[in-house]
Amino acid sequence: MTATLTNDPSAPSAGSDVVLSLHGVTKEYPTTPPVRALRGVDFSVTRGELVGVVGPSGSGKSTLLHIMGTLDLPTAGQVTVAGYNVADLSDKDLSALRSRHIGFVFQQFHLLSGYTALDNVADGLLYTGLNVNTRREMAHRALSRVGMGHRLEHVATKLSGGERQRVAVARALVGTPSIVLADEPTGNLDTKNSDAIVDLIHQINEEGVTFVVITHNKEIAEAFPRTAGLRDGRIEYDTGLKR
Amino acid sequence: MSKSNGLEPSKLHTADALRTASVGLHTRKLRAALSALGIMIGIAAMVGVLGLSESSKSDLLAQLDRLGTNLLTVQAGTGIGLGSGELPIEAAGMVSRIGPVEQTSTISAVDANVYKSDYIPEGQTGGITVQAVDVNLLDTLAGSVADGKFLDDATATYPTAVLGSVAAERLGFREVTGTQQIWLGERWFTVIGVLDEFELNPDLDRAALIGMTTAEDFLDHEVVPSSILVRVDPDHVDDVTAVLSATANPQNPEEVEVSRPSDALEAKEAADDAFTALFLGLGAVALLVGGVGIANVMVISVLERRAEIGLRRALGATKRHVAVQFLGEALLLSTVGGIGGVVLGWAVTGVYANTRGWSTLIPPIAIVGGIAAALLIGAVAGLYPAIRAARMSPTEALRSA
Questions:
Q1: What is the ipTM of this complex?
Q2: pLDDT digits (tens, 9 = 90+) for A52-72
Q3: How does DSSP assign B244-267, residue by residue?
Q4: Nearest CA of chain B to the CA of A69: how many Å?
Q5: What percent of chain A has pLDDT over 70?
Q6: If you compute the radius of gyration of chain A from its CA atoms, what whole number of angstroms results?
Q7: Is residue A75 part of a domain?
Q8: For residue B250, what pLDDT is reported?
Q9: Cα A235–chain centre separation
Q10: Which residues of B touch A81 (CB under 8 A)?
Q11: Of the partner residues A3, A127, A131, the one whose CB lies closest to the CB of residue B316
Q12: Using CB atoms, which residue from B314, B318, B401 is nearest to A92?
């Protein structure tokens, strides 16, 4: 099985700087009647971009994120992540792709409750084969980067919501992925913490990390350098890089 | 496969696999402890039963070793068609001429009763018999004196008696002063000793023992052997057994009963073995129930931790990594239970053996087998939940969180 660098015909100018591309992606769930969550989505993300994908609930946001994150496969269409055509990869290879190229941030943080911030972030590298000391060193650096360097040994349950999401962001960053996918990262936070996380995302993007943030919050999405609107499983608009 | 496309495969070091397997134990300690307890009780029961059986067996072997299994008893048959209850007078002499016979000791039942004094009514015999014995009896039976001394060549010619343990108790003897007398066969006998229990011949515990010459001289007893105790070369016990009755009574060999007292002890042990098997079975049932408990806890755990499974898949865990994590957790639970069970079983055996005066012996097979059984149960119990966890689609797992 070989994965080749795929030239996305929809974005020929992007070249090898394209980190993520979706071409004609359709996702149907085999329920009765079948649900078409995505209908021919063309979408690509270039290295260093920060894209907000906004849409009401039921617009297919979560499905889109899962497909971009290779957690789910499209019914039709082509997905390329970090140069790998997802359709060419086995389940095992997809795991490897996720462990090395994709970082995730979830609405519910998904931290292991009995473990410290440091351990939780180090777990972001658990499946990379790095040894435990290296993992912890890198986790330390990632936590410092998100302003949590003083909370390393705090158990996850003792942290505030905002702090937990910072830890989760650090976990997504720790493996220096090609792209970070955030699913409603502010959905469980109050306005103050929400603003802080959005600021953090801006800051980290300025350091060169590619981000796709999925949200139902138009305000947040529109403050990003590029915004795409999703409705009924279709990209309704895409601003491209705003000048 | 992965190499060809330049993707370095996901990896999970063994130490990390162990750590992920312990996440559930770490975050849900009480539940882990309770489910391990089921296995622990099962293993403890099995180790305890095997340990107790081994310890009691070693005690029996020590007892047999001390008493010897080479003692044979030649007895005159009693009952209809089995003769007079007497052996020929020459029997002992003939038996002692069988090659492998090392020692013989004759016992002759004396028709007399024993009383504490001559005021006791005749009917109150206390069930104590009088036996005329050889002076080597104690040696032959591996018996011992509790107080005083046994008959010797001198005292065996005087009206002196030695009491078996039960007889001494019934006659009210606590210690031997050398001047106490009993009313035996219508005359006074001086008690010179009290014996410990005979492990090989409990009948003699209920007897007053007197010398052969004494019986002849003072009680007009005709010394006809009622039984002969025979110590045999341990390698030829069966050979001697085969010829013993014909030798003791060549005319009526069918009137002679030959027995091996140590057989009774071994039969007792065989009965214990039957109980051992029963309790082992019960232990196995407890273990099975413990295994079902672990399976149950693991199934619940997989359902509860869908979000964690989804997260791990997102972090790059393969299906195999997830399966290993949950199977590992079941194995950890059962190992903890298994080790705890071995320790508990050992402790129970130790305490019980101590109260019985046995040495504590845990067969290594019980320890190795106990932990192996726990691991096997854990593997079986954890397999289905682990496969279920591995098959869970990551999106499903994350969505339901």
A1: 0.90
A2: 999 998 899 989 999 999 999
A3: HHHHH-SS-GGGEEEE-THHHHHH
A4: 8
A5: 93
A6: 18
A7: no
A8: 79
A9: 18
A10: none
A11: A127
A12: B318
Best residue of B1, B3, B4, B7 to probe chain A, by most A CBs closer than 10 Å: B7
Count of C-beta atoms within a 10 Å radius of residue B167: 27
Weakly modelled stretches of chain B, pLDDT under 70: 1-4, 79-85, 400-401
Task: Determine whether the interchain pair B399/A90 forms a contact, defined as Cβ–Cβ distance below 8 Å.
Answer: no
Widest Cα–Cα separation across chain A: 52
Beta bridge partners of B291: none
Confirm whether A35 is domain-assigned: no
CA–CA separation, B116 and B98 (whole Å): 42
Output the CA torsion sign for B320, B321, B325, B326.
negative
Q: Please give the pLDDT value at position A127.
A: 94
Contact B203, B146 (CB under 8 A): no
What element of type H or E holds B175?
none
Minimal Cβ distance to B4: which of A2, A66, A99? A2
| Amino acid B4: pLDDT | 56
The helix (run of H) or strand (run of E) holding residue A213 is: strand A211-215
Q: How many other C-beta atoms can be found within 10 angstroms of the C-beta atom of residue B133?
A: 26
The residue range of the domain holding A53 is: 48-69+94-238
Q: How far apart are CA B131 and CA A199, in angstroms?
A: 108
pLDDT of residue B83: 63
d(CA B4, CA B297): 41
What is the widest separation between alpha-carbon atoms in chain B? 112
User: Which residues lie across from B230 on neighbouring strands?
Assistant: B72, B104
Instruction: State how far the Cα of A10 lies from the Cα of A23, in Å rounded to an integer.
Output: 7
Instruction: CATH number of the domain at A213, please.
Output: 3.40.50.300
Residues 6 or more apart whose Cβ sits within 8 Å of residue B35:
B290, B293, B294, B296, B297, B333, B337
Nearby residues of B357 by Cβ (< 8 Å), 6 or more positions away:
B59
d(C-alpha A190, C-alpha A194), whole Å: 6
The per-residue pLDDT for range B235-271, each reduced to its tens digit, is 887 888 888 778 877 777 777 888 887 777 777 777 7
Task: Please say whether the beta carbons of B315 and B399 come within 8 A.
Answer: no
Q: What is the pLDDT of residue A118?
A: 95
Positive/negative CA dihedral, B88, B89, B91, B97: negative
For residue B271, give Cα distances in angstroms to B36, B66, B69, B277.
Answer: 33, 21, 19, 10
Q: Is residue A172 part of a domain?
A: yes
- Report the run of H or E that residue B47 belongs to, with start and end: helix B29-67
Does the pLDDT at position A11 exceed 50?
no
Spatial distance between the Cα atoms of A102 and A238, rounded to a whole number of angstroms: 22
CA-based nearest distance B396→chain A, Å:
10
- Which pLDDT score is estimated for B62? 79
Residue A14 falls within a domain, yes or no?
Answer: no
- In this prediction, residue A16 has a pLDDT band, given cuts at 50, 70 and 90, of low
Inter-residue contact B223 to B215 (CB < 8 Å): yes
Distance CA B388, CA B298 (A): 10
Contact across the interface for A92 and B393, Cβ inside 8 Å: no
B138 Cβ contact list (under 8 Å, min separation 6): B144, B145, B150, B195
| Tally of domains within chain A | 1
Nearest CB neighbour to A95, from listed B16, B310, B316: B316
The radius of gyration of chain B's CA atoms, rounded to the nearest angstrom, is 35
Label the pairing between strands A35-46 and A179-183.
Answer: unpaired
Residue of B nearest to A82 (CA): B7
